[in-house]
Amino acid sequence: xxxxxxxxxxxxxxxxxxxxxxxxxxxxxxxxxxxxxxxxxxxxxxxxxxxxxxxxxxxxxxxxxxxxxxxxxxxxxxxxxxxxxxxxxxx
Amino acid sequence: xxxxxxxxxxxxxxxxxxxxxxxxxxxxxxxxxxxxxxxxxxxxxxxxxxxxxxxxxxxxxxxxxxxxxxxxxxxxxxxxxxxxxxxxxxxxxxxxxxxxxxxxxxxxxxxxxxxxxxxxxxxxxxxxxxxxxxxxxxxxxxxxxxxxxxxxxxxxxxxxxxxxxxxxxxxxxxxxxxxxxxxxxxxxxxxxxxxxxxxxxxxxxxxxxxxxxxxxxxxxxxxxxxxxxxxxxxxxxxxxxxxxxxxxxxxxxxxxxxxxxxxxxxxxxxxxxxxxxxxxxxxxxxxxxxxxxxxxxxxxxxxxxxxxxxxxxxxxxxxxxxxxxxxxxxxxxxxxxxxxxxxxxxxxxxxxxxxxxxxxxxxxxxxxxxxxxxxxxxxxxxxxxxxxxxxxxxxxxxxxxxxxxxxxxxxxxxxxxxxxxxxxxxxxxxxxxxxxxxxxxxxxxxxxxxxxxxxxxxxxxxxxxxxxxxxxxxxxxxxxxxxxxxxxxxxxxxxxxxxxxxxxxxxxxxxxxxxxxxxxxxxxxxxxxxxxxxxxxxxxxxxxxxxxxxxxxxxxxxxxxxxxxxxxxxxxxxxxxxxxxxxxxxxxxxxxxxxxxxxxxxxxxxxxxxxxxxxxxxxxxxxxxxxxxxxxxxxxxxxxxxxxxxxxxxxxxxxxxxxxxxxxxxxxxxxxxxxxxxxxxxxxxxxxxxxxxxxxxxxxxxxxxxxxxxxxxxxxxxxxxxxxxxxxxxxxxxxxxxxxxxxxxxxxxxxxxxxxxxxxxxxxxxxxxxxxxxxxxxxxxxxxxxxxxxxxxxxxxxxxxxxxxxxxxxxxxxxxxxxxxxxxxxxxxxxxxxxxxxxxxxxxxxxxxxxxxxxxxxxxxxxxxxxxxxxxxxxxxxxxxxxxxxxxxxxxxxxxxxxxxxxxxxxxxxxxxxxxxxxxxxxxxxxxxxxxxxxxxxxxxxxxxxx
Lengths: 91, 947
Known about the structure:
Chain A has helices spanning about 35-45, 85; strands at about 5, 10-15, 20, 50-60, 65-70, 80.
């Protein structure tokens, strides 16, 4: 059971969180300006690395805020990312 | 006297407290402090059960949790299947019998209680032997919050069974002193009888505390989050493999030593000791000292260790270096060991000479218990000198110590434990120092020479009686067959031979099988590796894992304000998420079908009422609420006037229908959304995701108000008359209060918001009142409807009525692959809005296909019954050769009172172009003809909604 550092509530058990997959997958600003292939890439394609992965979590049973962490997919070691990235994927 | 193999004194059992027990139908006596195994050995009983595949007699092959063969079924005081005799505490009245390799669940329900405990600590010490106690002492003295867990009934670990001296006094005195100091510590929790069975991410360890049949809760599962974990889990002695090595009376040398020192039991009168490791010698000498005759110490190494050879000579114990035990005699009990000259370098054996004995002790060295370390992600590496896999590398916050890290002497274990305790405390920023180490025996560090198996004198079926895994009855010959079949991976060979898959998960057989596989493949054990060390370390009952979370407490149950009324009126309930919803209200003698047809008829011709409080409700507030809703719904919400309601459809970004419901504008900057009952939490999360990560500029707040509003649907042509009787202040006239609008007012004297929404196509109202008043208003409406024959109806009738109108239910008629256009709801997709979630995907080539599956109606041929939901639809009257092209499937299917025929909704490829065609439903082994129709079966023009 991972101990996930919620930037708002502190470290909490994994069961309190909802996983959000790869972080920094921004919705294209103008969807009509991208090709079908590019749109499909936004919808369906995600990285699946062995090692460091930047991903999103939501503290469902706590503050209900989405945030971003960097997790090693092998060791499950989690490090917070910079404060400006914790709070939102894109602004 | 509790058995003729019990010494008059010594051991940690209480001879003044005899314990009567029954085994295999015979009465025996043991002592308080015995295990079932030690009590049986005290009575000269070695055979416990039989092997799982070959039925051969099996005995006691350890003194602890690693036991591979002494399986027992407990009958009394509490039926338990398949425990190891070596870990069952002897109790008065205990009744047990041996097992043929596997147990049976008791037929009686389990009356015991189980519970869960949660703890946080600075340092968790697993194992309370010399290493664990030293670590705990160092950490506790540094001021750390410490938890010490040990599987045994008392602390001390290996010290309890070795007869060693610490500071010139019995080691148990030191154990008692340290335990007492720890117990006095303000932040120390001691957990005896507690097996840590799993080590998970972030030092989350799970343990089982066995509190015994007399405790209020029999077992407790501990969930411990530790900042640092010291793993002082000890080691298991490795057997040696030779022909007929499974006969009862054969056990590891260290186990016999434990039975002697801990339980005052000499396991045999005349013993042969077979070893490749120095560690067996003290066991031989201790047994000799206790009066047993040692027929020989057979050492497979060319030379015996000089220190121990000298001690044996003093005791006149014959030592045979360069020899091996190659076989045994006996049936239920070993009667002789067959000793032959052996050259470990060439692997040749001489002629065997039987040596009479009733106890055969073996030692192939020690395997550190690296299970938890490996589960924590720690790598293990094969050590050629030890012949075992030892912890390698490091895991932050995890400290293997003592025998678990491959150390052999008590002095080493004490030191390494202290170091681990100091390191753990230091990592926490505490100032720690190791206490002075107690003085120990000055024996040389034991050495060994790894040996997995000796040659089999049986040349006709070599290896067939050389047992590697006693729990699975797997032999050298079995592994040979696996390797012969071309398998080289230890994981594949495990599955082929089942070696290591027994209740003990290969604690004593794992490294052995790796060694034998390596020999057969002509490679090194380090190349072969180990199988994965998975939790649980020892078997755990499901009841203990479930704890109190069973029956009514298994999962939260959500009920509405009117729930007790529904129960009182005989409704069975349907589970919708965690909600209990009334399914239908059967009258006396009615089955479900009759009740539902009656309820449907009442709504279509008179008036019915339904509790719809479970619909999800989200309050949306903020200056950008309208802009936000335009982005999340496919249709326009900003143009909705205050006081009006609009149906809304939500998609995910891929353009697939995600949820639907109504949107009520309650103010300039305020809306109330409803969602489907089972999807409310998901919708809220979906909306929050977009708000927090994509549209952070929007000033909008979302609040779940599902449980703030109790909601009653009043449906049917007489609904207006019923409502009028209790809502005199609200003008219910069609012109004043049109369809898809809402009004505030009093209903049955309670503040209410009344909506004109219909999910049945009939004239209908939804009355929303504060949850607290739900029951009162429900009863008032029921009473007001009495003269009109008002009929409460459940979810089944609601489903039939909406299906007759072709209204899809998200999650039943959709499955995440269905677009609004597929549902024929293109009318709900705005063409005016610049953007909304899912819009871009509608022009993706796959989404824009014209032959997608579309929602249609189905009418089975006359005389056919209701089609099962999920029925596959095919094009032809006769099934062609597979693969059969599928057209689609039935998503909803009911009997209809108003249509007079069964009907269904279905998703069918290119379905709208097939209206009027006949296709076939595959039901059982028949193909049922069905006609494809428009999905709206009833009141297509919508004439009934205004009454």
